[in-house]
User: What shape does this take?
Amino acid sequence: MSVSMPCRSAGKRGKTMRIAYIAVKGIPHGGGVEKVTEEIGSRLALKGHDILVYASRDFGTRDGMHRGMRIKTVPSINTKSLHKLSICLMATLDVILREKVDLVHFHAIGPSLFSVFPRLFGIPTVVQVHGLERKRDKWGILGRLFLGFAELSVFFLPNRATAVSRVLQAYFKELYGRKVSYIPNGVTPEPDRSPSWLTTQGIAPRRYILFAARLVEEKGAHFLIEAFLGMETDLQLVIAGDAAHMEGYKGRLARLAQGDPRIVFTGFVTGEPLAELYSNAYLFCLPSTLEGLPIALLEAMSYGNCCLVSDIPENLEATGDAAYSFKNRDAQDLRRVLCQLAADPGRVASKREEARGHVRRNYSWDRATLDMESLYHSLPGIKGVPDIKVLPEIQLDHGYLPQQDIG
Assistant: This one.
């Protein structure tokens, strides 16, 4: 299907907005939420909007400017349960008492509870849902109850809510009978990188399976290590990632690896080293048990990687027919498919360009920015109407159209 996409911009008739983002751990370092903020926020800044990003002081972020966005750090309580909530509390107080903004964008379900407070002072709010947090493995009964209440609050406390996947959009419609807007994550097409940093790490180009994600239980690195240990192969397994407050799980992964010299833990990587890892992998594997719309998977596909994912609906939505899958939480089935792909380079190569084309057609940060800007303009008190221009025709797969709701 091909459609002509409208290009919305803050032109002469458009209103320049002052937008604050809350629930960000650090810029430019961080995970999916931080990537969304950086990519959409920087593009909105280029369009003339004033962007303020609140971040934690705990991961090296400093006050200043980054890609046209003003970064403001706040103190927080750096524990597993309270870190994000304390960032949200301090940022919400600051944006109400010290800043003059037109709207506040809250990331994730837990922080949505704070979205009511700016509204009490006449500031509209948006909540962006990145996943079903109450289903994360790290939470106990009290945490799940709290996040279940926060999930319900998404429909009553902010002015608008948006979800990053069709799966999440359908979930809220079916369970709560409520509509949320669909605005997916994107990718930025990048040229492949030659293996410079890789060689210093003892990683052989095109001879490794790549896992790149936060080292939290729901990303499933333990399933991948367990599956890999049973393989007779000279491929390496590269585990790229880290996570705060997850020392127990990271220790479990190290013990599970059993000192196997084929398994390499790189720690957190970003920038050029991460681009090299994506560019030179034999295949990319994401055995996650819970997702929203995984940015690491989209990025891996954008570099032309053959990808193998667990068969949860969110991963299958992201990949379409352009990747392979295995049974969720089944290390034996994962090993079976890994062995097949390790023994058949032609089958791996057949998915490379298919994956690259799929994500570049369907997931664009530029398009996500246009949709988010349009959503902001729909809020009460944001009266400017963005200009409409027509972009060249864009080919879209499986029915992606911006700002569609499930009726």
About this structure: The chain has two domains: 2-186+364-395, 197-361. The radius of gyration is 21 Å. Residues 2-186+364-395 form a domain with the Rossmann fold fold (CATH 3.40.50.2000). Residues 1-13, 387-407 have pLDDT under 50 and may be disordered.
